[in-house]
Amino acid sequence: MVADQIARRGIRDPRLLAAMRELPRHEFLPEKDWPHAYEDRPIPIGEGQTISQPYIVAAMTAALECRPDDHLLDVGTGSGYQAALLARLVRSVVSIERRPALAARARATLGRLGCLNVTVLEGDGSDGVPAFSPYDGVLVAAGAPRVPADLTAQLAHGGRMVVPVGTSELQHLMVLRRTGERVTEETREGCVFVPLVGRQGWGVEHPAPK
Fold it and tell me: With the CA atoms of 6, 90, 30 and 125 taken in that order, what torsion angle do they form, in degrees rounded to the nearest 10?
């Protein structure tokens, strides 16, 4: 998977490539889907959600430019695979998921795999998690109609955010960097994610994190 789908397509970060080699992606899927776990495509995980294709996970993680002492926010826990990958690259990860069943399953998987530096919360990820901010990086694994303002506000000085922005049918990865009060934006490749549902996403209210 790493050699053919990721390194061959231009991902060069040695720490990221090593982490993806070590992390057992099949552990984040129902057993019936294990034969397909390392294919380069999204796979349903229930609740209308998917585990993203490996290349997109790698591309977003590379764009975040993770450093060993970083404290990150992962929006849209899903299966927990993205959070587990980030956990191998940084000091700590806060991951938020609006669907309680997925959050519980991800907690169990992360615990079983020894990812002790990940905290999984339930709530509206489009609002972020102010209580644990500021973040050195924010990664959003769902398509937003615009960059959520509260997520930008929770970035630390020098912080980065990677978020898919566009319509429900097509988004482009946006990479934001914060320097003091100044935030710059860069548009990268096209992608298709499940919608970011929430107050600053596609408009559905959900309870605060707990």
Answer: -110
| DSSP annotation string for 97-119 | ES-HHHHHHHHHHHHHTT-TTEE
What residue spans define the domains of the chain?
55-191
Catalytic residues: 52
Question: How high is the pLDDT of residue 204?
Answer: 60
Assess whether pLDDT exceeds 70 at residue 170: yes
Q: How confident is the model at residue 202 (pLDDT cuts 50, 70, 90)?
A: confident
Q: 54-77: per-residue pLDDT in tens?
A: 999 999 999 999 999 999 999 999
Smallest CA-to-CA distance from 176 within 145, 209, 154 is with 154
Residue 132 has pLDDT above 60, yes or no: yes
For CA atoms 82, 93, 59, 50, the dihedral sign is: positive
Helix axes 54-64, 14-22, angle to 10 degrees: 140
Beta-carbon-side half-sphere exposure of residue 83 (alpha carbons within 13 Å): 32
Q: What's phi and psi for 140, nearest 5 deg?
A: -110, 115
pTM reported for the whole predicted model = 0.92
- Contact 6/19 with Cβ under 8 angstroms? no
Nearest to 86 by CA among 49, 108, 53, 60: 60
In which residue are the tokens 């849209």 written?
Answer: 76
Architecture in CATH for domain 55-191? 3-Layer(aba) Sandwich (3.40)
